[in-house]
Amino acid sequence: IGAQGPHEPAMSKTSLIAGKNTGKQLSALQSRVPENNSCLVCQVQAPAYICMDFKTFVCQSCADIHREFGHKISSIMHSDWSSEDYTAIEKGGNRRAAAHWLAFYNPEDFPRPASSDKESAKAFIRKAFVIKCWQKQPKASRSRRSACRNIFSVGEDGGAQMPVEDANWAHFPPVDEVGPFDPSAPA
């Protein structure tokens, strides 16, 4: 049965990397990429945690807030790391996360919070990672056809032109039946 107990599966020695050794490797990774040397949220220097959901380096205060949102947090030096975890973090990091989650972030509209301002940090994390206000949007595939392409012709500039003569308008309700927009009405 071993140290795991009677109902726990034995952990493969190759799936976990020694915690302190991996912590040192993660610290080295953190040092190699300047953006990883500060908390992604409040920019406090030398963050000691990683938000595993977003593969970002964060300080203790911001880690606590991430936990409130249900995000998985791991300590760089005091967690057991699998080789898969390490590889995922190596492929992530604050630079890549900022390019994705903060792609449209404007500090003039919403300044970065100070680490001591828990409410502002919580609002920032909520906007960035829960609501995804500033997230980079995927590019639309040129092969995907818009529903409007069936009704409207599309000019060379991509703009809608006058309706196509033979368009089937039957699936659209008459304008007088639609009425004003009511956000509480069922779809």
Write the layout of secondary structure elements.
Blueprint: E1 16-17, H1 19-32, E2 49-51, E3 56-58, H2 60-68, E4 73-75, E5 81-82, H3 83-91, H4 94-101, H5 118-130, E6 152-154, E7 160-163, H6 175-178
Antiparallel strand pairs: 1-5, 2-3, 2-4, 6-7
Helix pairs in contact: 2-5
Jot down its keywords:
3-stranded antiparallel beta sheet; alpha+beta; 6 helices; 187 residues; single chain; globular
Q: What does this protein structure show overall?
A:
The protein is an alpha+beta fold. 30% of the residues lie in helices and 11% in strands. It has six helices and seven strands, in the order E-H-E-E-H-E-E-H-H-H-E-E-H. The strands form three sheets. A three-stranded antiparallel sheet has the order 3-2-4, with helices on one face. Strands 1-5 form a two-stranded antiparallel ribbon. It has a two-stranded antiparallel sheet with strand order 6-7. Strand 2 and strand 3 form a beta hairpin. Helix 2 crosses helix 5. It is globular, with a radius of gyration of 24 Å. The termini are far apart. The N terminus is likely disordered.
Mean pLDDT: 76
* SS-derived structural category: alpha+beta
General form = globular
Assembly category? single chain
How many helices? The count is 6
Low-confidence segments, ≥5 residues, pLDDT <50? 1-14, 143-153
Helix content: 25-40%
Order of helices and strands: EHEEHEEHHHEEH
Q: What percentage of amino acids are in beta strands?
A: 5-15%
Please give the number of β-strands.
7
CA gyration radius, whole angstroms? 24 Å
How far is the N terminus from the C terminus? 56 Å
Q: How would you characterize the largest beta sheet?
A: 3 strands, antiparallel
Strand order of the biggest β-sheet: 3-2-4
